[in-house]
Amino acid sequence: MNLADLLTYADIGQLNRIANHYECSSNTHSKHELIQSILVTLGNSSFIEELVYDLPEGQLSFLNALLFDGRVNYSIEELTALAKQAMEPKGERPAAYFRDIVVQFTKRGWLFNGSTQQTKYLYRVPQDLKMKFMGVIRSKFIQLAEVVPEPSVYREEHHLMFEDMKLLLKFTDQYEIPLNQEGFMYKRTQQQLLDFLHVKEPLVGKAGWRFGYGRSYKEYPDRLALLYDYAIHQRYIAENNGILAITDEGTHVFEKSSDEELMQIFRYWLRLYKGAIPSLASVVYWIGECAKEWITVSSLLESMGEIIHPFYYDTNEAVLKQRILQMMMHLGMVRIGEHEEKGQVVRMTPWGNRLTVTCNAVQYTSR
């Protein structure tokens, strides 16, 4: 439903609260006049832009989460939980703080409860307001993106993730791979496998922490951990009695198209990393919008740092560079280079643009 529809169903109490919030001059006893004044106020694009730009710290993260969440209706408890996850996933603030943020959104006319017996305790965002918010946030992030010339050297991995998936399966099929008591390959076997793949990674050392990005992330390098967890999830390989073996499903991967399989790996990556990075899908989408040309990674961090939270010992810069951009490069979605003066720079690939459009834009265009 659009704003006009939801205003029509709203009771005069909520209409007055919205009108008072925006200091609309209208007859407080006339529902029709209240609706018209609110529509005129929120129909002003520059006013919406001002509202979004002036949001108190943290609230842009909540608004962003609402735009990319797949649900249409929310209970007050679900909204409170979403606000906490978006604004302060590891914080100590009480639920009442985030519930108050939800109330503020209703006073602004950004959230409405339903009109029927079944939906009167459920809330939703007007669809046309969603589209306006998306446009404003897009403009905000793009304006802050610093465009630079193409670097002399950059790295791109094209569809090597799929090629290495097939090599992982081929390696598993050719050799008997013993697993240790925790169910992981021994270091020597890992090194042999990594030497077999197109993209090399150093083995995981003993120092440091490794959790939050998948089951095998604890023991395997980042890219290999994603490949391995995906292959287990898809039942391409199986851990049986301390031995890793290819399955019947795994043998059919060699017949699949790279695009189809990479799309599935991308979607799996979004789900796998979402626990550590709740805003991941939206950040990937916004990178796609901002990096159609070569831009600096520092400007990306400056523009969308608020919606990227640290994860334990990972700062939000490390999350952006290592957990998001690095994995997007492994998935063939971005090229990463180094500018002599500006540092790390990034640009989307045509394949990356295709993935972000098909897997993220639908979050708001189809609702």
What does this entry look like structurally?
The chain is α+β, with helices and mostly antiparallel strands. The protein is 54% helix and 8% strand. The protein contains 17 helices and 9 strands. α4 (45-53) crosses α8, α6 crosses α7 and α8 packs antiparallel against α15.
Describe this structure in a few short sentences.
This protein is α+β, with helices and mostly antiparallel strands. The protein is 54% helix and 8% strand.
How are the SSEs ordered, and which strands pair?
Layout: H1 3-9, H2 12-21, H3 31-42, H4 45-53, H5 59-68, H6 76-87, H7 95-107, E1 112-113, E2 123-124, H8 127-144, E3 154-155, H9 160-174, E4 177-178, H10 187-196, H11 222-233, E5 237-240, E6 243-246, H12 248-251, H13 258-274, H14 280-290, E7 295-296, H15 297-304, H16 316-330, E8 334-339, E9 343-348, H17 350-365
Antiparallel strand pairs: 1-2, 3-8, 4-6, 5-6, 7-9, 8-9
Helix pairs in contact: 1-3, 2-3, 4-8, 5-6, 6-7, 8-15, 14-17
